[in-house]
């Protein structure tokens, strides 16, 4: 418990350093743009592929579980849409990004630490925590909602394709289903969750990397810890946010 | 001038620096020597403020550095340049961007002025046609020279070098040593060099401090070092067989 509190305190101190006034705004802006490409744009491909197959699987599973003639077939489209918007595109995408982006951030910052690049920044009088971490947090907070929207779109598209190709639903029914009883707030809910998850992934992974002490072995461990802790926190906050936003 | 007075530093109860007092003179190459693990790097990092000391004082001219807050320390740090053991160049930046970084961060010069200054610094350390190369594409000696160029970009008053020629062949190591000495005289800086290389001591050492197990054991010039009667120092200085033979032939 004491260890947990000490780590949490260290995390808060790091965040205080991160959110202090930037030395030179144009440099931070340039860094943020770079991170958007590095952490955001470079994740589009993997997320699109995963979302497509995720949407396909959800549609097929919904179809096989609602084979009863009482249920109209457009419910398959509705089920696919709500599952993707409410849970899969925000939470599952966040878990995937925790693996890809989180480990990347922790190992990058960890390597900077063990090769004294962070010391070099501090030596120059640069707030290293803010210079390295703040652009990453801003970049993911801006870009991840777009990733979620992309995931929703591709996921539903994948569901439609899989549904029609396998013959479990016609395209007309599927489109009717995804428009039926649509609640726009679900999109807001999904975006709010994404913002929380983006902050968790970036800050927790940066924290793990920033305080690496030792060599390459410790960088590897920090990278693993970043993914594990981020994933657990994402799932925990998923429950909390669902209760707060949907109840 | 930099003065450290009675500084102590411990890690997890293990005392690494014990009551060290030294003054480092302006315009001279001051050397801290000692075996690996003797506390040289901790001492250097404490002097520049990368480690907080437990007790004692660190003075830069008449400024008590270790009592300053982050923003005030930042002002003093703008006058410092440091060459790290592993060069510590930023992997994601080219040679030119690495040297330009402190200028981008702390000056309002135009891009043309900065580029001119970067080229001047790179030329000064004999790095030519490598502006667009990344650190991974540079040799060990080139990395050190680029790191020196970055360290002198803001025309600092103080230069700190942690094992500047570790991992380099003897000829490149001498070139780096000479470069440090020349730059120190040219910019009239206070330079502190951490080393365990006796070649460096004989090449550039003007004031030498010997640290052993976190304690200052000896202080003097390179002429005094060969005549010292400090046993631990002699064990260090005449550690290799060539030095031992030289010593016996001198006797």
- Give the % helix of chain A: over 70%
Helix content of chain B: 40-55%
DSSP summary: helix tally of chain B: 10
Approximate shape of chain A: elongated
Task: Give the biggest sheet of chain B.
Answer: 6 strands, mixed
Q: Please mark out the parts of chain A with pLDDT under 50 across 5 or more consecutive residues, or reply none.
A: none
Just name the CATH architecture of chain B: 3-Layer(aba) Sandwich
Count of distinct structural domains of chain B: 1
- Strand arrangement within the widest β-sheet of chain B reads 6-7-8-3-9-10
Number of H- or I-type helical stretches of chain A: 9
- Separation of termini of chain B? 37 Å
CATH class of chain B: Alpha Beta
N-to-C order of helices and strands of chain B = EEEHEEHEHHHEHEHEEHHH
Gyration radius from CA atoms of chain A, angstroms: 21 Å
The major pleated sheet of chain A works out as: none
Q: What is the subunit arrangement here?
A: heterodimer
Proportion of strand residues of chain A? under 5%
- Rounded to the nearest angstrom, the distance between the terminal CA atoms of chain A is 31 Å
Mean pLDDT across every amino acid position of chain B: 87
Determine the structural class of chain A based on helices, strands and strand pairing: mainly alpha
Question: Can you tag this structure with a few keywords?
Answer:
heterodimer, A: 247 residues, mainly alpha, 9 helices, 84% helix, B: 251 residues, alpha/beta, Rossmann fold, six-stranded mixed β-sheet, four-stranded antiparallel β-sheet, 10 helices, 10 strands
